[in-house]
Amino acid sequence: MDLQTERAIAEIKARQAKSVGLQMPEGLKTKARGMAREIEKATGCNVLILGDPCYGACDLRTPRGIDLLVHVGHAPIPDLHPSTPTIFLEVRMDFDVRKGLLQNEGMISGKVGLVATAQHLHLLPTALRTLEDMGRKAFIGQGDARTAAPGQVLGCNVTSALSVQGSVDQYIFLGSGYFHPLAVALGTGLPVLSMDPYRGAVSDTGEAREKVLRQRYAAMAKAGNARDWLVIVCDKPGQRRDALALRCREQLRERGLTADLLLLNEVRAEALLPYRAEAAVSTACPRLAIDDGPHYPIPLLTPLEMEMVLGLRDMGDYRLDQILEGDTPG
To answer: How much is the pTM?
Structure first.
């Protein structure tokens, strides 16, 4: 694993930063103290480790007094412009993608779309060549302005996959975790083969997709009886969709339902309890509803799911909620 500490040191020296914030996702925080000491020794600056949870490049924190933010583990969101100077260290992680593809040749279709998280984007060209050597047609799509490179998928944005949807009958995802490949499966309706470099596992997301869809339709059925709603707005810079929240509130009120806006930075089940609503729609990251929704005391829907409940969208037309170019103030 390359944390790109030398690059951070060079940037700090070049910018003559005196107070630096160091932000990492949960999986890398065990490296934070060592990296902070190394930076301080090399540059003479003060490093403040930002200990709050970090969910991605949409979740930049800039405490008062910070000259420079060093954000580790994610690629920048190009249409998001931080208020504090920020450098992104994407942390490339290698694995033998060629071996993984060859060992699972029987699971691979004839026309394949390739997608990955930021840590594995550099492996996509190798995957493309390997698939072509195997006699497959492979495609790497270009996403919208929220993606930093071709083939990149975010938990809230699979436009790179959608851009080649008409040319493929399967996707291969390079990365860990289940949500990104699940987002591609929900967003495109096509099978996704997930290659996890850490566990060495290769799996099809079909079963997980069906399970999630059953949960989502159950939540929508429960929300169909709700008369009192909350519309959640998230204060994280890359997730704040004010215009969408206002539209959701008006759509609810137009049907005679009670609906109020609620601004949160951390969207949590217990944060909703004092307001005694019967259902909520979240305009924050769609992962909140899909990942955490089953643990909420009331139905937590995405805006597209709310439209299905209100009869504004066909109940059979399930689509992934995405945060797209221009959706946030940026």
So the answer is: 0.87
Same domain, 188 and 232: no
- The 10s digit of each residue's pLDDT in 224-249 is 999 999 999 999 888 999 999 999 99
The helix-helix angle for 179-188 and 206-223 (nearest 10°) equals 70
Same domain for 102 and 74? no
- Give the chain's mean pLDDT: 92
> Which residues constitute the domain of residue 268?
210-309
pLDDT tens-digit series, residues 96-148: 899 989 999 999 999 999 999 988 999 999 999 999 999 999 999 999 989 98
Q: Is residue 76 located within the same domain as residue 131?
A: no
- Tell whether 175 and 242 lie within a shared domain: no
Q: Is residue 319 part of a domain?
A: no
Percent of the chain clearing pLDDT 70 (strictly above):
98
